[in-house]
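Student: I would love a firmer grasp of how sequence relates to backbone shape in proteins. Thank you; the sequence and its tokens follow:
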Amino acid sequence: MKRLLASLLAGLALTVWAEPFVPKDDAEIVQRLPYRIAAAERARHAALARDPAQLPLAAAAARAALQRARVHGDPRELGVAQAALAPWWARADAPPEAVLLRARVLQARHEFDAALVDLHGLLARADLADALRAQALLDAAALHQLRAELPEARALCGLLQPLAALPATACLAELASLSGQAVAAAQTLAHLNPGRGLPPEPWLALMRAELAERLGDEAAAPALYRLALAGEDEVYTRAAWADWLLTRGRAAEALALLERGPDAEADALLLRRAIALRQLGRATPLEARLRERLAAAERREPGRHAREQARFALDVQAEPREALRLARANWAMQREPADALLLLRAALAAGRDGDATRTQLARQLRDKGWQDARLAVLDRSFAP
């Protein structure tokens, strides 16, 4: 659903540098970005520097920065977005558009509770414009889904139906896929194509690819991932496709996919490059870089990057007990299919130390009617 929102990366670590660097003078080049900031965007920031309280300009700058963060996996853009919203950042009575954008920055930083407070406060406003209400409903539903609070997410998607039928239908279908109705949900999503003979929208292709993977549809998933990559080449999409390849032992293909993109240094992609190289038996300096970045992320945002830390411990460092500890911490914070898969893999790798976690996870997912062929392949306790 996060792709449907065109919202932010919730379970993906962004690039964080280990130590601050202070240039000697203003002309010194700190780093060359893999993407260009448009002249119109630079002009917008110049205008904001002269008068920061111009809400339309500030909102446009924040939206553009959030879009770049989502596409390129660059956390500095979250700082750009917050800076644009500075006049309203701490205000309880901030304008609705500023509140919505503030919530998206908080969501990207894994400050989920604070983001939900903003979003539910926004939805309580009787005079909220329909367009903003629709966006807030989708964002709040995505956050509740991320935490496996499916009834809350479903109620919000239901409220969205009269405002935006297509996103609401996709939202409800994805929730149904996590509640024992995965096959019917896949059929619903397939019927949302824009027209006969036309490929699905990239966000819809990605949603369908991930569902096909959970259903064990080996034929549909790769084709849908390729369609998703044909759109705006986001870090999340490239990482998801790489994971599909890595799971099937196709590390060389995954490595080629990850290295050819302009954002190969994003943490999410760097992590998968290290995993691919490990599977290929090749020595790499990436492991030391990743270790430094994850440590820096932990210092700056304690406890918010446990998914990536667990994946690094499990698939790169081969430390299953540490991976299990981190995967448990991650599961307490976010509960998407990728998080369940990571927790089970870590529990299995930890042997007897993971037995209680396996049993508890199986019971939790069975109670929700969760269907995921990947879990069943790993452990028969998860078979439907």
Observations:
- The chain has three domains: 1-11+41-177, 179-232, 285-384.
- The longest helix spans residues 55-72.
- The chain has 21 helices and no strands.
